[in-house]
Specification:
The protein is rod-shaped, with a radius of gyration of 18 Å. The protein is mostly helical.
Length: 43
């Protein structure tokens, strides 16, 4: 009984981490794209 709860808790933590990291990565990519869009980088 406890093992099942523990498994669910671990799975929820992993999903939560993926969501958070995905959000942060999206924010970073938007910043990067906007900086390219403003012409800060000349490639």
């Amino acid at each position: 009984m406890v093992d099942q709860k523990e498994k669910n808790r671990k799975k929820a933590l992993i999903v939560f981490q993926i969501v958070i990291y995905g959000f942060l990565l999206t924010m970073f990519l938007i910043q990067l794209w906007m900086s390219f869009d403003r012409g800060w980088w000349y490639l």
